[in-house]
Write a structure and sequence with these properties.
Arc Repressor Mutant, subunit A; extended; 3-stranded antiparallel β-sheet; alpha/beta; Rossmann fold; 13 helices; 366 residues; 3 domains
């Protein structure tokens, strides 16, 4: 509207100019008077349109500002929104690193533990605020395994997304120790897990560097497959036949990004080595929080003559409901040396010939 009014004003001014010049150069007559009248009418119409259009434009801008302010007022506020992802990670860490993650924890005790673990993130919140925030992330599904009953909060399963950010350096050291067992020409198998994913990443870098070849991999992990496909040299090795990958099929478990094939699942080639994870380690064997991944672990243990169980020391002494394997001569645990006294006591009860410790970075340099 404003643009058309400006165009009318410019047109009127342009038409009155020649009429004025004509009036100055000759005596006024009917033709000059008519031209002047038309030009003045055009200028008047243009001025009216300009003023009217500018008023409408200002009114529209004022209304838009009012709508924006009212929308901001009505929009529900989310205090501490930026901290919710950190809070979810902290809740998972506190609940998962207990001896029994599936046992309900009193909300106020959980709030105290969270405040002690992450004082910077939660410095401005009292315990009741923390409990309400934990309940909020549970309702929003920001921590899928988080469950609450009358006794408190607990985890009903693990979660790969959060576990990838826990004990990162220890998992890297464990993965490097496990990857050293893999030689060219071997047939190996992985299940799903944050530490086994680290092993796959190290192997993919060795394939890319052409120091590992003629490898056959069997896995139930979507993440392991994605890791291999994400490296151009690995894709080229698959096309050239230097790398073969077999994905085990079964129901999808979104919390750990794995397939859970039935116990009748088999591998297309004989296995030399299986590399699997564990969520709990006790003197009588290795444990899971539920039956997700149970059968794939049993299958790989059955098919492989040797198995490496890769797990950081936070898993030592963790009592979980589902045991998937006892200790045996074919199983080797690769873990880091724990700082926790309780974990060290658990280590003293384990078969010493079946435990290998990962080397810290300082030992690697020496």
């Amino acid at each position: 509207m404003l643009e058309s009014a400006i165009a009318g004003l410019v047109t009127g001014l342009a038409s009155i100019l020649p009429a004025t010049i004509l009036a100055l150069l000759q005596k006024p007559n009917w033709s000059v008077l008519i031209s002047m009248t038309i030009a003045c009418g055009a200028v008047g119409f243009g001025m009216h349109g300009f003023v009217y259009g500018r008023r409408n434009a200002l009114h529209a801008a004022k209304m838009a500002a009012q709508v924006a302010r009212s929308t901001a007022t009505l929009r529900p506020s989310r205090p501490h929104q930026d901290d919710e992802a950190d809070l979810a990670a902290t809740v998972f860490h506190v609940l998962w690193n207990r001896a029994d993650p599936g046992k309900p924890m009193d909300p106020l005790r959980l709030a105290h533990a969270i405040a002690d673990h992450a004082p910077d993130v939660l410095a401005d919140r009292n315990r009741d605020d923390i409990v309400r925030s934990v309940e909020r992330i549970r309702r929003l599904g920001e921590l899928p395994p988080l469950v609450r009953n009358r006794e408190g909060f607990f985890l009903d399963s693990d979660d790969l997304h959060f576990k990838l950010n826990m004990a990162v350096e220890h998992k890297r050291q464990i993965a490097e120790t496990a990857a050293a067992y893999v030689r060219p020409g071997m047939s190996i198998a992985f299940d799903g897990g944050s530490t086994t994913l680290q092993v796959a990443r190290i192997l993919s870098s060795r394939i890319a560097a052409s120091t590992l070849f003629q490898l056959r991999i069997t896995t139930s992990s979507i993440q392991v497959c994605s890791e291999l496909l994400g490296v151009p040299e690995c894709r080229e090795a698959i096309r050239d036949g230097e790398l073969s990958v077999w994905s085990m099929a079964g129901p999808l478990h979104p919390s750990c990004w794995t397939m859970d094939p039935p116990n009748t699942e088999d591998c297309p080639w004989p296995l030399d080595l299986a590399i699997i994870g564990a969520n709990g380690i006790q003197p009588d064997g290795f444990y899971l929080p539920n039956e997700h991944g149970y059968w794939v672990k049993k299958t790989l243990l059955r098919l492989a003559p040797r198995t490496l169980i890769v797990a950081d020391s936070t898993k030592l002494g963790k009592q979980l409901p589902v045991r998937f394997a006892p200790w045996s001569e074919s199983i080797t645990l690769i873990t880091n040396r724990p700082d926790d006294a309780a974990a060290r006591r658990i280590l003293q009860t384990l078969p010493k010939h079946s435990v290998v410790y990962s080397a810290p970075r300082s030992a690697e340099k020496s």
